[in-house]
Each structure stands twice: as structure tokens, then as C-alpha cells.
Design a protein that fits this description.
about 220 residues, Alpha-D-Glucose-1,6-Bisphosphate, Chain A, domain 3, TATA-Binding Protein, 2 domains, 5-stranded antiparallel beta sheet, 4-stranded mixed beta sheet, about 45% helix, elongated
């Protein structure tokens, strides 16, 4: 994140710019435009805009569970040329399969050199993700129940169970991911517009609250 803030001050990146997400997309765009071939690894919660940025290139997106060990393990696999965390950590496996701010800065300078344009201009051309993230309270003892019931109710629909439950539909996708350290469940959703993203997240939240309320009512009887 220090890397991102330093470049932000120097290049006057757009107001409202999400540093972590924006620089992740910038790396993807630069790697694709450089004609590099290989795989890019991201947590399963990453925006779908990474897929759009690599269309027509020699790059393939690989999604991992949403944890640092899973991401760095994927970064060490053959063919992976870049890995990025949702929070802004970057991995260039040719140097080291782990976060390294200095290596990330040097690689960014290398990718920018042939472009010869300000970062602010490149950022202005990036797609604007509509991804929303909402943490909601969930007692420890209820997390397993919520995930099991959700899995049962969503049976037969298009799901990705890499980490938590990710549901795909025509409007976009939504995901439920239990927090490993806190009594929370994380909701992610992304549609074509912010409004659709919020709709998807709200529908999933209502699902979860219905399950929790039903369990609480059963416990009182």
C-alpha cells in the first residue's frame, strides 16, 4: 500500500480512486498489453474485471481460496507470472513467490517504461468495478449451519465452491465467505451496475438472516 500511496502523490491519480483495487487492475492491464504469456492468480473474491482485461491476450486467470497461504502457493506454481491480493499485495514469482514492495515497484517501472504515459491516464481508462463487500454478524456456532443450508438451497444452480459459496447468475455473481477469525460472514457481489451489485448482496443477506432466525426460533421451542 505504501507503493500505491507514493505513486498516487506523484501522478495525481483520480479522486475517489480505490488504491488497492485500482493498482491491481493497472498491473493486469500492463501485463496484458506487454504481450506476456502465463497465469495470473487472484483470490476468488476478486472483481470480474480482471477477466475482461485479459481478453484477447495470452493470459489466464486462476482463482484461489481467499487466504495469503493459498495465494502464495498458487504463485509458486508453474506458469504463474503474477498474483494479486484484494487488499493490494502483489507477487512476482520470477523474483519471489511472496509479497515484496520493492520488487513490485521495480516491476511496475519496467512495465510502464515502454508505455510512456502518466499513471493517471492509464488509471482513467481502467474499467470501474461494481464489486460490493458487506460483513454481517454470525455467531461461531451458526456458521457451519448457514453454509450447509445455503448449499442445500442453491443445489442445482451454478456454484463455485473454491472457498465459501459463490453463486453465478445472469445478473452477475454473489459469494458467502465465513471469516476465519471473527464471528462474521462476508458477502461479496458484483453485477453490471452498483444497483445490481447491491441487489445481489441484499438477496444473499436475506437468505442468511432467514436461516439464522429459523435456527434461533427452533432453539427456543
Amino acid at each position: 500500500m505504501f507503493l500505491s500511496r507514493a505513486l498516487l502523490k506523484r501522478h495525481s491519480v483520480l479522486p475517489g480512486f480505490d488504491l488497492a483495487l485500482g493498482f491491481t487492475l493497472l498491473y493486469v492491464s500492463l501485463i496484458a498489453s506487454a504481450g506476456i504469456a502465463g497465469k495470473l492468480a487472484f483470490p476468488v473474491t476478486v472483481t470480474s474485471q480482471v477477466d475482461r482485461l485479459v481478453e484477447g491476450s495470452q493470459l489466464e486467470i486462476v482463482r484461489t481460496p481467499a487466504s495469503l497461504p493459498a495465494l502464495t502457493k498458487a504463485a509458486a506454481e508453474d506458469g504463474v507470472v503474477f498474483a494479486g491480493a484484494v487488499g493490494g499485495g502483489y507477487v512476482f514469482p520470477e523474483f519471489l513467490p511472496a509479497y515484496d514492495a520493492v520488487a513490485s515497484l521495480l516491476k511496475l517501472m519496467e512495465l510502464l517504461a515502454p508505455v510512456q504515459r502518466p499513471i493517471s491516464e492509464l488509471v482513467a481508462e481502467l474499467p470501474h468495478p461494481t464489486l460490493v463487500h458487506r460483513p454481517i454478524p454470525c455467531p461461531w456456532g451458526m456458521k457451519g449451519l448457514v453454509m450447509r443450508v445455503l448449499n442445500e438451497r442453491l443445489a442445482g444452480r451454478e456454484l463455485d465452491l473454491t472457498d465459501g459459496i459463490k453463486l453465478f447468475e445472469e445478473r452477475g455473481w454473489s459469494q458467502v465467505l465465513p471469516d476465519p477469525d471473527e464471528p462474521l460472514i462476508h458477502l461479496y457481489a458484483e453485477g453490471e451496475t452498483p444497483e445490481i451489485s447491491n441487489e445481489l448482496a441484499e438477496e444473499l443477506r436475506e437468505f442468511i438472516e432467514e436461516i439464522e432466525q429459523g435456527e434461533q426460533a427452533a432453539a427456543r421451542t
